[in-house]
């Protein structure tokens, strides 16, 4: 039997063309997936039903917006706690290197010199329970972007507990119990 190199070569080429055609048609969007054909989601977002589903820390039509960016910068605080008198002071919200949803709050309560760790989920800022400088702090707040894509107001509901005396200073976190108001932060 004589070896036919030309026939083998043509068979390999034909097989490759058939396989690539099969692969091409199996990877093309079909049905509802066709809605995603022209959509590119940033930051690891995934297109489903023609819309990007964004990972934590990102939003926008194509996951192009880092959510925490609306919170960053200097804020003027006006607050009155259940223990402290009415006062105004400045705080700063800065980026954290943990991930795209984490931030650091500086000068909260006009007391903390260490940054307070927090994170952002959509329009909510969450301050997880943490102990710093002899006090425990926790809370949550909401950003107000009505009529604007930039934040101009935050209302933070938080509590500070003195670890030594157990004295509680509430800023609207337990409003239903002590009728305290949230802390208002403005740009």
Shape: elongated
Q: Would you list the SSEs in sequence order as H and E?
A: HEEEEEEEEEEEEHE
- What's the oligomerization state? single chain
CATH class identity of the largest domain:
Mainly Beta
Main sheet characteristics: 8 strands, antiparallel, barrel
Please mark out the parts with pLDDT under 50 across 5 or more consecutive residues, or reply none: 16-31
What is the correct CATH architecture of the largest domain? Beta Barrel
Helix content: 10-25%
Extended strand count: 13
Global mean pLDDT: 85
For this structure, the CATH topology of the largest domain is Lipocalin
Please report which band the strand proportion falls in: under 5%, 5-15%, 15-25%, 25-35%, 35-45% or over 45%: 35-45%
Number of domains: 2
* Structural class category: mainly beta
Distance between the termini: 87 Å
Tell me the strand order in the biggest sheet: 5-6-7-8-9-10-11-13
Radius of gyration: 27 Å
Separate helix tally: 2
Walkthrough of the structure:
The structure is a single chain. Helices cover 14% and strands 40% of the residues. It has two domains: 36 residues; 119 residues, Lipocalin. It has an eight-stranded antiparallel beta barrel. By secondary structure, it is mainly beta. The chain is built from two helices and 13 strands. The radius of gyration is 27 Å and the shape is elongated.
